[in-house]
């Protein structure tokens, strides 16, 4: 009450001296022209608040005041106990102010069993005959000189830690998978780019080879076309030469036959002509000459003249045969 100021509400936890009921007192000063006239105070019971606020909560929840006294608790047997040892001076001060109605402050076992991790620490809490280790998570209530402490079962804490670790592992796996997918996509894109470049180079190389082979094929086709034309021309000439040779051989055969016939015929005809001339000479002396002179020589010279006309044919055949052979 004495710390209350005008325009400012002061909070204070205490146990009533009349009904021995705990409550939270709110006080503010009343002033007039800077002169303090008095103090207005009101008490808020915490039983109903404790029932509705902490009832049904599975975890252990305690509210500690500035002296370390359990003001509210989800465990009724913990309420009103002090969590740390009080000095003689502190006990005398509490006795004089009657903040807890001069009640005997029993001790609640509250021992730290593990190092503190930020706002989290492992503590052993309970009565003398029954204690349990908890993970304590504490925070200061804003505007109040009180501390809210949540006691979590280590099994739940471990389960939560495992869940968090699993979640972190899943997140790490997802991140790793995402990075792997991104890396694979980049690698695939790079491989595709290299494949396209290699394919383009192969295409250009094949294109050059195709053009060179096409030019070679065109030159070869042109050469074959000229070769075929020359072969056709040569075959035509050969065919004409063969026809001329056949005609020449036929003429040669005919000439040889004519020469043979002329030779065979000329011999008896020459003999007959000689005999005829001799006979003419012998018969010139008689009448028989007159009868035979008009017939015999003429008959002998007629075949001889016809045979003589065949000699040029034989000569031409022999000359043509000689020219073809050369």
UniProtKB/TrEMBL annotation:
State its Enzyme Commission number(s).
2.7.13.3
Q: Kinase as a keyword?
A: yes
Query: Which CDD domains does this entry report, sorted A to Z?
Result: HisKA (cd00082)
**Superkingdom:** Bacteria
* Residue intervals passing through the bilayer: 134-154, 160-183
**GO MF term set:** phosphorelay sensor kinase activity
Tagged with keyword Zinc-finger:
no
Reaction equation(s) it catalyzes: ATP + protein L-histidine = ADP + protein N-phospho-L-histidine
Keyword list (alphabetical) reads: Kinase, Membrane, Transferase, Transmembrane, Transmembrane helix
Annotated protein name in UniProt: histidine kinase
């Amino acid at each position: 009450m004495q710390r209350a100021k005008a325009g400012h509400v002061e909070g204070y936890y205490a146990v009533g001296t009349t009904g021995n009921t705990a409550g939270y007192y709110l006080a503010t000063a009343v002033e007039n022209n800077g002169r303090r006239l008095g103090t207005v105070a009101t008490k808020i019971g915490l039983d109903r608040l404790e029932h509705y606020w902490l009832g049904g909560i599975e975890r252990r929840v305690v509210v500690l005041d500035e002296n370390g006294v359990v003001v509210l608790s989800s465990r009724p047997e913990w309420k009103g106990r002090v969590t740390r040892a009080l000095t003689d001076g502190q006990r005398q001060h509490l006795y004089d102010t009657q903040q807890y109605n001069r009640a005997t402050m029993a001790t609640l076992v509250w021992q730290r069993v593990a190092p503190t991790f930020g706002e989290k620490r492992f503590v052993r809490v309970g009565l003398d005959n029954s204690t349990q280790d908890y993970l304590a998570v504490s925070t200061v209530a804003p505007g109040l000189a009180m501390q809210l402490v949540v006691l979590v079962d280590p099994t739940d804490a471990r389960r939560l830690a495992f869940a968090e670790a699993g979640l972190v592992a899943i997140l790490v796996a997802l991140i790793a998978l995402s990075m792997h997918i991104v890396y694979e996509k980049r690698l695939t894109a790079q491989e595709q780019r290299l494949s396209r470049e290699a394919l383009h180079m192969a295409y250009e190389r094949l294109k050059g080879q195709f053009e060179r082979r096409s030019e070679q094929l065109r030159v070869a086709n042109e050469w074959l076309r000229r070769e075929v034309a020359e072969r056709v021309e040569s075959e035509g000439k050969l065919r004409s030469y063969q026809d001329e040779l056949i005609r020449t051989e036929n003429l040669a055969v005919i000439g040889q036959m004519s020469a043979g016939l002329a030779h065979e015929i000329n011999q008896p005809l020459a003999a007959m002509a000689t005999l005829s001339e001799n006979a003419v000479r012998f018969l010139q002396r008689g009448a028989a000459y007159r009868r035979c002179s008009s017939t015999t020589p003429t008959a002998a010279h007629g075949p001889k003249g016809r045979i003589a006309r065949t000699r040029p044919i034989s000569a031409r055949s022999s000359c043509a045969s000689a020219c073809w052979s050369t």
